[in-house]
Design brief:
The structure is a single chain. By secondary structure, the protein is α+β, with helices and mostly antiparallel strands. The chain has 2 domains: about 5-65; about 70-240, Peptide Methionine Sulfoxide Reductase, Chain A, CATH 3.30.1060.10. It contains 9 helices and 10 strands. It has helices at about 25-35, 40-65, 80-85, 110, 135-140, 170-185, 210-215, 215-225, 230-240; strands at about 5, 10-15, 70-75, 90-100, 120-130, 150-155, 155, 165, 195, 200-205. It has a 6-stranded mixed β-sheet with strand order 9-8-3-5-4-10, with helices on one face. It has a two-stranded antiparallel sheet with strand order 1-2. Strands 6-7 form a two-stranded antiparallel ribbon. α1 (about 25-35) packs antiparallel against α2 (about 40-65). The radius of gyration is 22 Å and the shape is globular.
Amino acid sequence: MTPFMPLYDKSVVVRHDEFSWPECVVGAASALESRPGGPNLDRMRNARAFAAIALAGLLGASQASAGALQTAIFAGGCFWSMQHAMEEVPGVVKVVAGYTGGHVSRPTYADVTTETTGHYESVLVTFDAARIGYADLVGRYFRRTDPTDGRGQLCDQGPSYRPAIFVANPAQRAAAEQVRAKVGAELKRPIATAILPAQAFWPAEGYHQDYARKNPAQYGAYARGCMGFAGGREAALAAVWRDRG
């Protein structure tokens, strides 16, 4: 399991192991060096120059196509619910359930649920900044949580279920703080949602990914039974945000 960490532009979170020489570039360079007659200094220089030019072209094309993509990390209780909610936000490209904020590498679900590793159940959200800004995304996140509960979220209580926004740079922090202040004014109550520096994000086990979509009966039973409300989890959220637009 490889963590996601900020690299270069800290508003973007990527996997360390995704940055390697593309096989097509390495293969082309190798072909030039192994032409009949054996390698010589000129051929090796030409091969490496070709590889560098090809790699620059590939990276440029990749950056151009993904230039508007950014990432955000949120913790808001059960990551099944948070992943399901954030996937429905227009402009969101991908949501991964996982763990962040702890002091143990490669945590498992069994580790995190002991409440001794310091991790939060969280989601890594990749979004198209041309369609939705970071501040708007934070606003949508708040609406899917009870930001006044710092001990957990709704029927999921404990340190790993606490609400938090993990910011990757000063711009994200400023936006998150501004939205949090606005939420506090709307609810007229202290806001418990923490704003913390982004740390390594460890993807959760495969069976947790898209759990609500893959297991609608099981997830539905969990959501309906949440909090003892007649309408389950959705009714509990509605009670928090009632008459807030």
